[in-house]
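#dry-run=false #mode=assembly
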Amino acid sequence: MSGTPPVPRGEVPARLLAWWEGHRRHFPWREPGLSPFAVLLAEVLLKRTTATAAARVYPVLLARYPNAHALASAPPGELEVILSGVGLQRQRARGLKEMASYLCANAGGEVPRDLGELLRVPHIGPYTARAVLVFAFGEPLGLVDSNTVRVFQRLFGGTAPQGRGLRAYQGLADSLVPPDRPREYNWAFMDFAALVCRPGAPQCGTCPLGHVCATRTAAPGGSPDQRGLCGGDRPPHGGRDQESGYRD
DNA sequence: TTCCTGAGAC
DNA sequence: GTCTCGGGAA
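#status=ok
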């Protein structure tokens, strides 16, 4: 009896990527060869917005505003019309213009490849800045949002970071990213969180991480019974913080 | 009803 | 720290 068996984290990225080969979702902003600005445009558009809704307007947006200069000089009201129906029209239209104007005035209209610089751009926060670094420049960073936290808590159980904010999970998220495939891994993680390890009714029966999931293996008897064990809203039960090897 | 690739204002 | 933006989909 060696206490609680540690979750073999090393297997997680490989299993996720293998699963993703047959389950990946396709979106316009995942096409190869997009400019950093095109990536930034997608990330800002996707904030608090469903991917299917964003996919409806993204091609129109990108075709009309292929760079920061075009977006910054968009006629008043034009952006709102394009964004109507997606939600958050007013704030997002204003935010996109302010962002583009800042880039034109302070960065020559280019998207900075630097976390600190990106965080100075209006309406770019910790998530969007890292997403741009990952998807536009291939930096090996992990993306942390509420979905990341949910998956980590289910997957690692009591050995997951115990902090309250999203920042507590950044180090673990970064440590899981395969240095040679940051884009594919982060897309795989997002698709996994959206399709399998969902907020409600997680698909534990077909989960590619079932054998390494703390929530599932917490089942008595070790047999993966088909009750919705992962469906619990709370983490398995507090297992001492234990540091969990989390480093920044 | 909750949730969606969050971030700014307070 | 909390509140707000927002329409659409499950």
